[in-house]
Amino acid sequence: MPTFKHILLGFLFSLLLTLVAFFWVVKGMPSAGLFIFVLAILQVMAQVIFFLHMRAESSQKWNNLFFISTMGVVIIVVAGCLWIMGHLNYNMMSSGMKTDHEIMEKEAIHK
After folding, report:
1. How far apart are CA 92 and CA 51, in angstroms?
2. For residues 106, 107, 108 and 110, what is the CA-based torsion angle, rounded to 10 degrees?
3. Which of 42, 49, 37 is closest to 16 using CA atoms?
4. Distance from C-alpha of 65 to C-alpha of 71, rounded to nearest angstrom
5. pLDDT > 90? residue 98
6. What is the distance between the terminal CA atoms of the chain, rounded to a whole angstrom?
7. Which among 33, 39, 32, 38 is positioned nearest to 15, based on CA atoms?
8. What is the tens place of the pLDDT at every residue in 35-71?
9. Per-residue pLDDT at 101
10. DSSP readout, 19-84?
């Protein structure tokens, strides 16, 4: 059973990560994307350890397995959505930005 100290430590750690990410973006610091991604991973780990109480214990084996499987599905869905949106962005650009001829040359399509 988690103690109040354990929960408070998790809350403070999560709050610290959130504030660091917020001020990093507000100040316009360089490499914000990668840094925010790393902070997001740390935030997920903090939530899992401190609030979902998932640890590397043998009694947690099934919970950990389902959590890892769920994260795998989420990663596949997000990557697929980004891939689809990237292709839609490329193929659906306004005609003022790319002509059909330019697209056909880039894609090596010959009439």
Report:
1. 43
2. -110
3. 42
4. 10
5. no
6. 70
7. 39
8. 888 999 999 989 988 888 887 777 878 888 888 899 8
9. 72
10. HHHHHHHHTT-TTHHHHHHHHHHHHHHHIIIIIS---S-GGGHHHHHHHHHHHHHHHHHHHHHHHH
CA dihedral angle for residue 51, residue 53, residue 54, residue 59, rounded to 10 degrees? -160
- Look up the pTM and report it: 0.60
Type of residue numbered 57: E
Question: One-letter amino acid identity for 63?
Answer: N
Structure tokens at 88: 């839609």
CA–CA dist 40, 29 (Å, integer): 17
